[in-house]
Amino acid sequence: MPPTIALAGDMPPLYTIKPERGPELQNLLERCDDYSRMNFGIPTGDADAQSQFIEGLQHVPPEHKHLMALDVDGTMTAAVDFLEGYPDATTGVIGLLVVAPDHRGHGLGAAILHAIASWLTTRGSHRLRLDCHVAENTAAVPLLHRLGFTEQSRQLIEVARGQTRTRVQWLAPLPLPTENPRPAAV
């Protein structure tokens, strides 16, 4: 597991989240409650952070599962979980990417995706997959297109309380194209 992954410019690095920082992750997930409601149709649960430490595909080695965060001014501001070498040896998969609402729209999500993609490239990955759980996540679509992701599939899925969402699987070749990042206002 990487201890840190550097981001471009003067942005703080991603670091591996240790279980003792679970309460901070839970706080971030609660601040990003719109993510849970949009993707799963329910508010953030009391144990959502805890589940990030124990969930994952059982056949993926633990050293290929990564849960990382980024702090701004001492507060956990973004979190990402990703797998390397899944579903094949040359593909990485982003499972979760959340950015605190007050830090969105300033290029932080793109910088995180670039940093992870660069790191995965050094580990032999040639593709990055991302499952945008809902086609309704319209804010993510322009970013994914800018970063070279193309839609691979759509599937209507049932989420909590019988609600449905459209799960879209995206794939991009690595390295991701360089873009002119927006000024960092993290």
Distinctive features:
alpha+beta; Aminopeptidase; eight-stranded mixed sheet; 5 helices; globular
Summarize the structure.
The chain is of the alpha+beta class. The protein is built from five helices and eight strands. α1 crosses α3.
Folded structure, characterized:
The chain is α+β, with helices and mostly antiparallel strands. It has a single domain, classed as Gcn5-related N-acetyltransferase (GNAT) (Aminopeptidase, 3-Layer(aba) Sandwich), CATH 3.40.630. It is 25% helix and 31% strand. The chain is built from 5 helices and 8 strands. It has helices at 22-31, 33-40, 48-54, 108-122, 140-146, and strands at 4-5, 14-16, 65-72, 75-84, 91-99, 127-132, 150-158, 164-173. It has an 8-stranded mixed sheet, with helices on both faces. α1 (22-31) crosses α3 (48-54). It is globular.
The figure for the number of domains is 1
Please identify the top-level CATH class: Alpha Beta
Total beta-strand segments: 8
Q: What is the helix/strand order?
A: EEHHHEEEHEHEE
| Strands ordered across the widest β-sheet | 1-2-3-4-5-6-8-7
Helix content: 25-40%
- Low-confidence segments: 181-185
- Biggest sheet features: 8 strands, mixed
Beginning-to-end CA distance, first to last residue = 25 Å
Question: What's the structural blueprint in terms of helices and strands?
Answer:
Blueprint: E1 4-5, E2 14-16, H1 22-31, H2 33-40, H3 48-54, E3 65-72, E4 75-84, E5 91-99, H4 108-122, E6 127-132, H5 140-146, E7 150-158, E8 164-173
Parallel strand pairs: 5-6
Antiparallel strand pairs: 1-2, 2-3, 3-4, 4-5, 6-8, 7-8
